[in-house]
TrEMBL record:
Species lineage: Bacteria, Bacillati, Actinomycetota, Actinomycetes, Mycobacteriales
Pfam family for this entry, one: GMP_synt_C
Record-given protein name: GMP synthase [glutamine-hydrolyzing]
Function: Catalyzes the synthesis of GMP from XMP.
Molecular-function GO terms, alphabetical: GMP synthase (glutamine-hydrolyzing) activity
EC number of this enzyme: 6.3.5.2
Active-site residues, Swiss-Prot/TrEMBL: C78, H164, E166
Keyword Ligase: yes
Organism listed in the record: Dietzia aerolata
């Protein structure tokens, strides 16, 4: 891999994603990694990320000096650029000349900026500046505040830039990063959807061996792609389970039972466990508690599904798997719940050992799985799992970003109606009702949500909006007037966001006409809702979901 050395800035993951967009696999490692640890990962190049600090600060994060002697191609960004300059014998000064935001650089030569306009805008964020490039390095760009805005040394396959090529505000940044990877480092862009799919299928095959697996479908892209990968790896030893926890949106269950099952090619069991989930959620208002309960009950549902899965897998051999699967899904549905447990007594429960999860790289990081990052929310498919899970987790997407998941899905032949879907959280509408969850509130939210989705699609906004959670403030009431009467109803919050990976997001400027239409329809058509409000908070500081 290309290793992105994380100096503690929020940009390391973004850089990793940009490297992958250049079709080269990359991972993030902490700056505390030693040269030996880095070598052990067989890197093909290093990228030093930006950092929050000045290289002069007392606790400035540093890198094992031996790393610079590994002979690896290296690209420094911002703080990483300065670290590199210092380590290689250049000069970094506290010029007192801060540059922040849009800045023009002037290109003076070199391979990185070849073909770009001589003067072009980039995104800067620095106080210190490199004032002399290391010996043997050519200065290839300058700016008003950075006499050395970029340098490179073809012989050592090293280069760096003071600005942030990874952010969208540097319009040519991706090109510069790509040129480093291919022209300076000489790497072959081979991280393509086809190769990713092939590698993931192979590693799933290795992990599961001759074992059996079940995969919970949530109705989202991630679990569908994860299931499809595992299906390609182990065939009819995979059974999909769809838990109707009563927290679904309108039409979701039907869609999973038809489109998803046939696209994935594995038999599907639907469990109608809404009674169970809603029972446990009654009167629970704390978001983390809700998440934990839903995570726990998912696992309990899956455990109940094992017996059914085993029976199905026994039957699946020989006859046409596709049609048998669809029929079995319908059957299982009517026989769901308590019955399934007793049905299991004849089969050897526990011989489905693997549980497939659609966990993504950002989930892993946000649930505290990344080095030194705080737990922000326990996403049910990672941190919310109970301790006594009896399954071994299979997480084929654990290192992927959302756009890669979609690309892999397309590669596996999943239709656009699945891979193009907006993200929807596993805990469903349960974390979109602020307050306790009950059937009536769920019906209210479902009705509002359906209207929002309908109007957003009709307005052609599905591609510009990353997702639009619709939230019911069940514990808030406000006074309204409808007809001649006073109302005292609940507000619905619209949370349209634009994002690339859900790690950061901005609120989407949805056209007023669409908002007006949505507001009118919701207040007219959904009983108990007398106000529609728009969430105009970016992430950070807000998260995308309200809970
Ligand atoms: P937040 O609210 O953390 O959401 O900004 C980031 C993205 O993750 C989705 N999300 C979840 N997905 N299980 C999931 O599978 C979860 O528990 C969960 N919580 C949030 C959210 O919809 C957004 O796309």
């Amino acid at each position: 891999p290309v290793l992105v050395v994380d100096f503690g800035a929020q940009y390391a993951q973004l850089i990793a994603r940009r490297v992958r967009e250049a079709h080269i696999y990359s991972e993030v490692i902490p700056h505390t990694a030693t040269a030996a640890e880095i070598e052990a990962k067989n890197p093909v190049a290093l990228v030093l990320s930006g950092g929050p600090a000045s290289v002069y600060a007392e606790d400035a994060p540093s890198l094992d000096p031996a790393v610079f002697e590994l002979g690896l191609p290296m690209f420094g960004i911002c703080y990483g650029f300065q670290t590199m300059a210092r380590a290689l014998g250049g000069e970094v000064s506290q010029t007192g000349n801060r540059e922040y935001g849009r800045t023009d650089v002037t290109v003076t030569g070199g391979a990185l900026h070849a073909g770009l306009p001589e003067a072009h805008p980039v995104w800067m964020s620095h106080g210190d500046a490199v004032t002399a490039a290391p010996a043997g390095f050519e200065v290839t760009a300058t700016s008003a505040g950075a006499p050395v805005a970029a340098f490179e040394c073809a012989e050592r396959r090293m280069a760096g830039v003071q600005y942030h090529p990874e952010v969208l505000h540097s319009p040519h940044g991706q090109q510069v990063l790509s040129r480093f990877l291919t022209e300076v480092a000489g790497l072959e862009p081979s991280w393509t959807a086809a190769n990713i799919a092939e590698q993931l299928i192979e590693s799933v095959r290795e992990q599961i061996g001759e074992g059996r697996a079940i995969c919970g479908l949530s109705g989202g892209v991630d679990s569908a792609v994860a299931a499809a990968l595992v299906q390609r790896a182990i065939g009819d030893r995979l059974t999909c389970v769809f838990v109707d926890h009563g927290l679904l949106r309108a039409g979701e269950r039907e869609q999973v039972e038809t489109d998803f099952a046939s696209a994935i090619g594995a038999p599907l069991i639907t469990l109608d466990d809404s009674e169970v989930f809603l029972g446990h959620l009654a009167d629970v208002t704390d978001p983390e508690t809700k998440r934990k309960i839903i995570g726990r009950e998912f696992i309990r549902s899956f455990e109940r599904a094992v017996a059914q899965a085993l029976e199905l897998q026994g039957q699946g051999t020989g006859s046409g798997a596709g049609s048998a699967g669809a029929a079995a899904g319908a059957d299982a549905d009517s026989a769901a719940g308590a019955d399934s447990a007793s049905a299991g007594s004849s089969a050897s429960a526990g011989s489905v050992d693997f549980l497939v999860q659609g966990t993504l790289y950002p989930d892993v990081v946000e649930s505290g799985g990344g080095a030194g990052t705080a737990t922000i929310k326990s996403h049910h498919n990672v941190g919310g799992l109970p301790d006594d899970v009896e399954f071994t987790l299979v997480e084929p997407l654990r290192l992927l970003f959302k756009d890669e998941v979609r690309a892999v899905g397309r590669e596996l032949g999943l239709p656009e109606s699945i891979v193009g879907r907006h993200p929807f959280p596993g805990p469903g509408l349960g974390i979109r009702i602020v307050g306790a969850v009950d059937r009536e509130r769920l019906d209210t939210l479902r009705a509002a949500d359906a209207i929002v989705r309908e109007e957003m699609t009709a307005a052609g906004l599905d591609n510009s909006v990353w997702q639009c959670p619709v939230v019911l403030l069940a514990d808030v009431r406000s006074v309204g007037v409808q007809g001649d009467g006073r109302t005292y109803g609940h507000p619905i919050v619209l949370r349209p966001v634009s994002s690339e990976d859900a790690m950061t997001a901005d609120w989407t400027r949805v056209p007023y006409e669409t908002l007006a239409l949505i507001s009118n329809r919701i207040t007219n058509e959904v009983p108990d809702v007398n106000r529609v409000v728009l969430d105009i908070t970016s992430k950070p500081p807000g998260t995308i979901e309200w809970e």
